[in-house]
Structure formats: C-alpha cells, structure tokens
Design a protein that fits this description.
About 30% of the residues lie in helices and about 30% in strands. The strands form five sheets. It has a seven-stranded mixed β-sheet, with helices on both faces. Bound molecules: S-adenosylmethionine. The site of S-adenosylmethionine has 22 residues, from helix 7, strand 17 and helix 10.
C-alpha cells in the first residue's frame, strides 16, 4: 500500500501503535520500538525516503519483505485490532490501570479481590490462583500482564481468554489509529493522537453535561452531528423525545460498540444512529426539524467542511424557529488562535442568520439560536 504521508505524519500513527519513534535529523533513519507489534527485539530501524518509510528489518516487524512502513504497520496492526474488534461484544473484559492497580493492592492481602471488568460500571469478584487472576470462566490474566496494565495509564486493555491487548486499532482505509483512553469516568477517544474529548481540568462525562447545560432544557428533537462515543447523544436522550446521531467513521462506531459507557446508543429506542457523513446527510433533511443541534466536530484542520458557512446555513435551516445550536469550537493552538476560532465561528454564524450568538469560554462552545420569526 503506497502512502503519501510525510515522515512526520507517519510518525504520529506509528507512535500510537508502538510508542516513541525518533526521526534522525536528516529524516532518513528512524528508530522504532516495536515490541507492541509482536517483534522480539525492542527496536528496529526504518528508513524514510520520498515520503515513504521502509523498515530495514521487515522480519522483525512482521510485514511483507521490503514493504513500506505503512504496509508493515497494517499487517502488524491487524493482529492488534483482530482481537479487540472481533471479540468486542459484551463479553469482552476491559481493564485500565485503575482496576489493575487496585487488584494488585488487594492481592497483597489475600487471593480474593473485587474489581470492575467494564471500566467501573459494575463490580465482580475475581481470584488469584498460581500466578493468574481468574476474571471469568474463560478469561484470566497473568500477574505480569496485570502489572503491565497497572503501569500504563493512557491505554485500556481488552482481556480475552489468554490474550491481553491494548484497545487501539489502525485503519488502513483512513490511515488513522483509534484508541480508547481511560479517564476518571468515561473513556476518551483518541484518533491518531488527537483527543476527541476534553480531559484537561474536566472529564468526558462532566464536559458533556456542562455542554448540554448551555442549551437546557434539552427537549424535543435533537440532532447530534458528530456522534463520536455518543456521550452528548445519549445524555440528551435522557430528556429529549428523540435524538438523531450521525457518525461518519465506522472505526469510531467500533470503538463505541466496545465502550461499556456507549452501549445505550445501541439500546435506547429514542436514539436513531446514522452511519454517514454529516455534510452529505444533513442537506437531505427537511426544514425546521430539530429543537437542538449539537455540533461537536473534530478540529478545523481535520474537518474544515464542518466549519463552512454553507454547512452552517443547513444547520440553521433544519432548526425549528427558536431552536438552539451548540457548537464546540475547542481551543486549538495558542491563546491567540483560540480567540480567533471562537470569534470567527461567532461572526460567521451571525452572518448566516443565527441570533443570540455567544461564546462560552468554560466549555469552549459557541451557542446560537434560530430567530423565532420568519427568516
Ligand atoms: C469530537 S468527536 C465527537 C464526540 C461526541 N460529542 C461524544 O460525546 O462522544 C467528533 C466525531 O465526529 C466524527 N466526524 C468527523 N467528520 C464527520 C462527518 N463529516 N460526519 C459525521 N461525523 C464526523 C469523528 O469521526 C468523531 O467521532
């Protein structure tokens, strides 16, 4: 598979899979830690040239001989995602550092422990026998692996029979990595290293609640343009009559299916999930359908079309008169740029016809309303 990615772009997703990758100053040789990809040695060399990266040691990387790094990664990542993606259903056991550390503590005092196998939603009794923690009839984890999980604070692990795998997948369709990352409450989603949820000074749960408070009471028909793990969508569904949620990326849907906290997306009859591109789906919607539109797109750099005037005009059109728009703009880059993005979105929403447009700095959201009278 050829790729047009630059060495720096490739480095981003390599780092998601295998940790730090050092590009030498002339950018021709990189050192990659590949133990997570199943290699026996911790480091192998890769050569970058003409926007490609070739591994010097493809055997170690388990890729096709002479293949470029993207090929090698796809083939190696298949092993990683094979486990979590195929075995993702409700039976999959998820552990993060918090549960692993707690179990290790408790096992210092005996062979029994209580822990959560679904990231804190429920609790289960587990036991230690001959160096293995028996999590269920089928699944056990060695003490060594438990220590590995305890020491890794930025990943979630899936345990299935004898295997323990980070919940991270690489898509050769999008050339991106998708990873669930533990937080103090609901997991955050990372796409190629970019967090899709706010975790600095807040948590995904508190952040979603705070955002929805800006448009409360949340009632009637709600549209969630960029569903992600669906936190805003299912919170809205607890008080709204209906929620339509759109998600374009099937890798994200896969992560949502795996995430214990996203399950109501697939179970709550009030939620209608559309797998599609919001820029194509929304123009097909009729006028004045929604009381609230929540628009939480990825960054401007990744998804500029979701910040375009033409798209905003559709959001205005599909809102009922008096209906509200909640638009997360984030705070990308430096302080100066942060002010600029919020200000530019505010200005352009007003220009396409929104009223009462204002910025909430705490949540980094712009809130606006469709005027009540005729447009
Ligand atoms: C910041 S996340 C949304 C998080 C979400 N509010 C939640 O509570 O989990 C943005 C999501 O938008 C999705 N996305 C990006 N472009 C899209 C598009 N054109 N149409 C629909 N979804 C899109 C991404 O795949 C990503 O999952």
């Amino acid at each position: 598979m050829a790729t047009a990615a630059t060495p720096e772009e490739l480095r981003d997703f390599v780092e998601q899979l295998v940790g730090p990758m050092v590009l030498k100053p002339d950018r021709t040789v990189a050192r990659i830690n590949n133990t997570n990809l199943g290699g026996d040695r911790s480091w192998c060399d890769a050569i970058t040239s003409g926007g490609r990266i070739r591994t010097r040691d493809p055997g170690v990387m388990s890729g096709p001989p002479g293949g470029n790094l993207a090929q090698v990664l796809v083939s190696s990542a298949d092993r990683i995602r094979g486990g979590t993606a195929r075995k993702r259903r409700s039976s999959v056991i998820l552990l993060s550092s918090a549960q692993a550390s707690e179990m290790l503590n408790q096992f210092q005092h005996g062979n029994q422990s209580r822990t959560s196998l679904d990231l804190g939603k429920t609790e289960t009794a587990v036991s230690l026998q001959e160096g293995y923690v028996h999590l269920s009839n089928e699944a056990r984890v060695s003490l060594d692996n438990l220590r590995r999980i305890a020491n890794c604070e930025d990943a979630i692990f899936a345990v299935w029979e004898g295997t323990v795998e980070k919940v991270i997948r690489f898509s050769n369709a999008t050339l991106r990595t998708y990873k669930l990352r533990p937080t103090a409450d609901w997991p955050a989603l990372e796409i190629s290293g970019i967090l899709m949820h706010r975790i600095k000074g807040t948590t995904p749960k508190r952040d979603a609640e705070a955002k929805l408070r800006l448009v409360s009471p949340v009632h009637g028909a709600v549209l969630d343009t960029c569903m992600g793990l669906g936190y805003t969508a299912f919170l809205a569904a607890s008080t709204a009559d209906s929620v339509t949620a759109i998600e374009k990326d099937d890798n994200v849907l896969e992560m949502a299916r795996l995430n214990p906290y996203s399950q109501s997306l697939f179970q709550e009859p009030k939620i209608k999930l559309i797998h599609g591109d919001a820029t194509q789906v929304i123009p097909g919607f009729g006028n004045a359908l929604f009381d609230i539109v929540n628009h939480d797109p990825p960054t401007l750099r990744i998804a500029g079309e979701l910040y375009a005037d033409a798209f905003y005009a559709h959001l205005l059109r599909i809102l009922k008169p008096g209906g509200k728009l909640l638009h997360y703009t984030g705070a990308p880059g430096s302080r100066g740029r942060r002010v600029d993005l919020a200000a530019s979105v505010t200005r352009r929403l007003a220009r396409v016809g929104f009223a009462k447009v204002h910025h909430d700095s705490e949540t980094s959201c712009v809130v606006a309303a469709r005027p009540s009278g005729r447009l």
